[in-house]
Specification:
Strand content of chain A: 25-35%
Distance between the termini of chain B: 15 Å
Helix content of chain B: 25-40%
Strand order of the largest sheet of chain A: 3-4-2-1-5-6
Structural class of chain B: alpha/beta
Largest sheet of chain B: 5 strands, mixed
Strand order of the largest sheet of chain B: 1-5-4-3-2
Oligomer: heterodimer
Helix content of chain A: 25-40%
Order of helices and strands of chain B: EEHEHEHEH
Structural class of chain A: alpha+beta
Shape of chain B: globular
Radius of gyration of chain A: 16 Å
Distance between the termini of chain A: 26 Å
Number of strands of chain B: 5
Number of helices of chain B: 4
Largest interface: A-B, 12 and 15 residues
Shape of chain A: globular
Order of helices and strands of chain A: HEEHHEEHEEHH
């Protein structure tokens, strides 16, 4: 997992599995403070307090097919090696919130990667969910709301998919100008 | 070759399970190691955390060598013992571990 986008993909898929309806992804970059934070909040089934204590351990998983779960474990490791910390809060049947902050210019921080493809892919799988992606770079802001996307059309119309993808790519690029 | 043969070259930190060693995987990005390795391989990495043991468990690796002088904590040892993974540590850098293992007869051909 050498892109932040891949971690976002993985964490939002966790939210899908947790039957979340609304998933918020907030990426906040601040060059003056040299911080990058990633926050994912969903309104899914949540994590009980017992599992929450050790949710980043790879030997704790809700999977029944195998005894190892690597999603949050890898994310936790990446955050730590980029000089950061992670908070996971949850209330059963209410919400789950994953919040991580890292040093933005840390040499071991993975790059953002292909966020446009990631958001399109997540939108294609979001018939029952609404994904809100908010990306700040200092005082600039980009908002992507999957509610405004026609998922059926995204699936069948390549030109529409290209347009959505290009729109995200351009808007994210503009954040850094 | 079995893991016991490596005890005179690297520091054994948990139980030795005398696992058969086939090839080598050298990677610090565990998600990449996961794609690369096969059952029986030795993983050489600087990642001294439980994720290395989780990956080794999932892939049924023979052992993990933590290179570059990094320490191993109790939690890693506990999970390694539960999952029959032998752990070694060494002050050598990963590249020198590979060269030594190759001299000892492990190659990836």
């Amino acid at each position: 997992m050498n892109e932040l986008s891949l971690y976002i993909l993985d964490l939002v898929q966790n939210s899908f599995r947790a039957k979340a309806k609304n998933i918020k992804v907030i990426l906040n970059e601040n060059t003056a403070l040299n911080t990058l934070s990633l926050e994912i909040i969903d309104d899914g089934i949540g994590i009980d307090s017992e599992l929450l204590k050790c949710v980043c351990s790879p030997f704790k998983t809700t999977r029944s097919t195998r005894k190892v779960g690597l999603g949050l474990s890898f994310f936790n490791q990446m955050v730590k090696q980029a000089g950061g910390s992670i908070i996971i809060e949850s209330k059963v049947n209410e919400f789950t919130r994953v919040y991580a902050t890292v040093e933005r210019n840390h040499v071991d921080l993975v790059p953002l990667g292909n966020i446009a493809d990631t958001l399109c892919l997540l939108t294609l799988n979001s018939y029952k969910n609404n994904i809100l992606y908010v990306h700040f770079v200092n005082d600039k802001k980009f908002v992507y709301n999957s509610e405004k996307i026609d998922v059926k059309k995204l699936e069948s119309d390549y030109n529409y998919l290209s347009a959505v993808r290009n729109h995200i790519e351009n808007k994210v690029r503009e954040l850094y100008l | 070759m079995v893991t016991t043969d490596l005890t005179s070259y690297f520091k054994l930190v948990n139980n030795d399970f005398t696992n058969n060693i086939s090839k080598m995987v050298v990677c610090d990005m565990l998600s990449v190691a996961l794609k690369q390795g096969l059952e029986g391989d030795v993983l050489i990495t600087t990642q001294n955390n439980c994720n290395s043991i989780a990956v080794a468990t999932l892939m049924k690796l023979s052992c993990v060598i933590i290179s570059s002088g990094f320490d191993v904590d109790e939690e890693m040892i506990k999970h390694a013992n539960e999952n029959n993974i032998t752990i070694f540590t060494t002050d050598k850098y990963s590249v020198d571990v590979v060269l030594l293992l190759n001299k000892l007869g492990i190659n990836n051909e």
